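ugh ok fine here u go
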Amino acid sequence: MSLLGFLGKDKKESLDKGLEKTKESVFHKLSRAVVGKSKVDNEVLDNLEEVLVSSDVGVATTLNIIERIEARVAKDKYLNTSELSEILKEEIVLLLEKNQTESASDFSAPLKNTPFVIMVVGVNGAGKTTTIAKLAHQFKSAGKKVLIGAADTFRAAAIDQLQIWADRAGVPLIKQQMGSDPASVAFDTLRSALSAGSDVVIIDTAGRLHNKINLMTELSKIKRVMEKVIPEAPHEVLLVLDGSTGQNAFEQAKQFTAATSVTALAITKLDGTAKGGVVIGISDQFKIPVKYIGVGEKIEDLLLFNRYDFVDSLFSSK
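structure:
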């Protein structure tokens, strides 16, 4: 099975580098799992289960993967341990395929709607602000006209930080005073986008309100107001998760998917952690496609997620 993706050489190298810590950790554990063994038996499968769980793939997804490999062992009768890495790659790609929509090959691909409205949600500290800036930069570099709306009005710092990053990306920002109605900011942003002929609109939202009910109410209100300006907006609700938090990212995903209808995921900070397996588990458990992954701090270090390239970078022995 060929695991060919679509990332160019430079971006594939960025992905390889960004997943280096996870890859080293997984390979070290995989090597120990098969030491002294020539074929895949129950002991190897038990060890593999431990490798995946400790790599933050998650228990439910790990069991799913193990069952798939057990079925292959039963069918093929004899599987060599040297084939285990390749089998693992194939099974994880198949698992991710079930939950992935076909992503665009690059940021210059035609948009389904113009302006294409992305509402960004996620807890404070997950990398929401930098992800918005990186998205804006990538779309702008691809020739799209981009506008950002600062609808996280609960923290003055959120507006100030977004302004700094919008300036770096060279993209205009629509903002109001701290404490303003977030829905009002979203309304102004969409009106401005229509008059300016923007291609992409990215709306930031509050990272945390007092409880889930407040969060749900606020996000619902923002969506209702946006629909008055552009029917069907937002076209995408993007949840930003911090990949370095491992299992905590699962909890964040649970809270936000309960509060609003999340349609895509961006998983950040994968370069600074050995917990890259969390991408596999979250995609599998929440049935939401991973669309972007953050593999560095630079403004260009946000990649469109491709399951083939991701799994190849994670499990290739090259």
